[in-house]
Amino acid sequence: MNTFSLQTRLYSGPGSLKVLGRFTNKHIWIICDGFLARSPLIDSLREAIPADNRISVFSEITPDPTIGTVVQGIAQMQSLRPDVVIGFGGGSALDAAKAIVWFSRQFDIDIETCVAIPTTSGTGSEVTSACVISDPEKGIKYPLFNNALYPDMAILDPMLVVSVPPAITANTGMDVLTHALEAYVSTRANDFTDALAEKAAQIVFQYLPVAVRKGDCLATRGKMHNASTLAGMAFSQAGLGLNHAIAHQLGGQFHLPHGLANAMLLTSVIRFNAHDPRAAKRYARFAKTCHLCPDSANDTTSVNALVQHIEQLKKACAIPTLAAALKEQKQDWSQRIPAMVQAALADVTLKTSPRAADAGAIQELLEELL
User: Fold this and answer.
1) How confident is the model at residue 5 (pLDDT cuts 50, 70, 90)?
2) Which UniProt keywords are listed (predicted)?
């Protein structure tokens, strides 16, 4: 039996921040990173909140939020006892806010509303039952899934992403495509998640290169913002797979941006999964739905077209090679492979991957990357 639920109320489009005007006489706690706390974007957020509300800010969020940051946030939440929590920022800020609220509720520290406001177009965290928390001492990222992690509201205002730099736009956009593809071939995929994944991918192929080149195009930014949310809805219901299981380790061990890690792995994982007949057929259908090959093409031709178009997209978006991204850390790659293999095997996202991957297969994929 399949289940599908939409638990987050969405508000989208330019000026959608104005929905925050519904809050009156509340204590609103904003969770973000230090950069955003000093940026004009937080001024826009504050201006959208009526003056009769009290605002507090927790700006200790760093890329790959850690267990320690979450614990610190829980302590502050216990002290402040806010009515509304707003996660404001990229995936790290949204994941941290969701985790802080979730764990706090388990200690009977509750709030009225959890709001997610993304300032990048990639993770889809604003509509997912997932968050990723890191343990820097072990070099491991822990993906957590629970329906209680869904935010109550999500605000998708493209005005908040027009200033995102090209490299971050490219990385987060490739994260969207990876979410869509992994949801599409997942063992839990269904008609509902397929529709979301297909639309998300169609938008990425059409609009991501434009967003990278012309970041100030509000219409294009809006499309990519919507694609991120669509793909987030798809994978939150269908699950992910091998690509994310390994990408989490590249982030945990080498602190590579998550979307970049996904992009580096994507075509290798497609080729690996395509040895499974069901996955190959679904990749082929995906390629045809995105108009990457003729409808008459066979599965092999279609999968090859998908791989080629992804490589072309990466080139158009200036996605670097793994060697270039690792820089001086490149010398540590081989010795860290065994730890990454074991952590990938334990990663919860592997459960819905379409083709079983053992330690040898994952090691081979990692060795071929560099």
Assistant:
1) confident
2) Oxidoreductase
In whole angstroms, give the CA distance from residue 321 to residue 308.
Answer: 16
User: CA 67 to CA 367: how far, in whole Å?
Assistant: 30
Element (H, E) at 85: strand 84-89
Check: CB of residue 200 under 8 Å from CB of residue 176: yes
Instruction: Please report, as a single letter, which amino acid is at residue 68.
Output: G
For residue 273, the tally of other CB atoms under 10 A from its CB is 24
- The residue type of 42 is I
Residue 330, Cβ density class (10 Å: 0-12 exposed, 13-18 middle, ≥19 buried): middle
Confidence at 217, pLDDT banded by 50, 70, 90: very high
What distance in Å separates the CA atoms of residue 263 and residue 321, rounded to the nearest whole number?
A: 10
The SS3 assignment for 347 reads coil
Q: What is the pLDDT of residues 101-160, one digit of tens each?
A: 999 999 999 999 999 999 999 999 999 999 999 999 888 889 999 999 999 999 999 999
Strand order in the sheet with 113-118: 9-12, 153-156, 113-118, 84-89, 27-33, 54-61
**Residue 181 pLDDT > 80, yes or no?**
yes
Sign of the alpha-carbon dihedral angle for 16, 237, 183, 138: positive
pLDDT at 3 exceeding the cut of 80:
no
How many Cβ atoms are within 10 Å of 292's Cβ, its own excluded?
20
pTM: 0.95
How many residues in the chain? 370
pLDDT band at 2 (very low <50, low <70, confident <90, very high): confident
CB 178 within 8 A of CB 313: no
Token digits of residue 329:
């850390």
Q: By C-alpha distance, which of 353, 208, 312, 322 is closest to 257?
A: 322
